[in-house]
Design a protein that fits this description.
The structure is a single chain. With 239 residues, the protein is mostly helical. The chain has two domains: 155 residues, no CATH class; 75 residues, no CATH class. The protein has 13 helices and two strands, in the order ααααααααααααβαβ. α4 packs antiparallel against α7, α7 runs antiparallel to α8 and α10 crosses α11. It is elongated and about 75 Å long.
């Protein structure tokens, strides 16, 4: 309960593109500390993060497999357990691997040959997806976290079904007269309307009780005056 609460607090202060990075760091740290049981090696983890490559062997599957994917596989086979992957891919069952590669959601499909056993080792399957279909790593990683963390859905779907004003209402309940709310905004974002809606819900008049101030040159005096008044009379100030 404490973990998901802290995650929610932090995630609400991140841009969408950064939330999975933070969640992945959280998951990997729990794996490292053995709080979440996942069998992996440091070499495998470094491969997932960095995805190294080598062009020592030319790509024999140029018709459908990008060079970048093949060169990554050239390093994957250096990891224990993956020694035969390149041979299986290029010589033993290239057509079956091509079918897997062309799937819309390969991360949810079993790999050909004995590699289907990776369905029971989802972390190792992430390495294959990282090499062959890097465009699907985000989804695959979400799936891994969802099934690995206790109540993983609470993390991967955190706030996804809540509107912006709903999230702000939840943040408002955690705030106080001495705990302000900070808005981290992307270009074009404007939370004023949501703040005004909550102001009305709290039976306050946005015109009289909500003061919005653009902090340009010379506005520090105005802002300090509004803060002093708000402190005395219970108004809200949005800087």
């Amino acid at each position: 309960m404490i973990r998901i609460t802290i995650y929610q607090w932090v995630a609400r202060g991140l841009f969408e593109r950064h939330k999975q990075i933070f969640l992945s760091q959280l998951t990997f740290r729990l794996m490292q500390k053995k709080i979440v049981e996942v069998n992996y090696t440091a070499q495998q983890m470094l491969f997932l993060i960095n995805c190294p490559s080598t062009s020592a062997v030319p790509n024999p599957l140029k018709k459908w497999l990008p060079d970048k994917a093949w060169y990554s596989i050239g390093k994957l086979i250096e990891i224990e357990g993956f020694e035969q992957f390149a041979t299986n891919l290029s010589k033993d069952a290239p057509a079956r691997f091509q079918m897997w590669y062309n799937e819309l959601d390969p991360e949810d499909r079993a790999l050909p040959l004995e590699w289907r056993s990776l369905e029971a080792q989802p972390f190792l399957k992430l390495l294959v997806v990282r090499c062959m279909r890097p465009d699907r790593v985000t989804t695959a990683l979400n799936n891994f976290i969802r099934t690995t963390l206790p109540k993983g859905v609470d993390y991967t779907e955190c706030d996804s079904g809540i509107s912006s004003i709903g999230i702000l209402e939840l943040a408002f309940t955690d705030s106080s007269s001495t705990t302000p709310i900070f808005f981290i905004l992307s270009a074009g974002a404007n939370p004023v309307k949501d703040v005004e809606a909550i102001c009305i819900k709290e039976k306050m008049d946005p015109v009289k009780h909500l003061h919005t101030i653009a902090l340009g040159q010379g506005q520090d005096v105005v802002a300090n005056a509004k803060l002093d008044m708000a402190h005395k009379e219970g108004h809200w100030v949005m800087l």
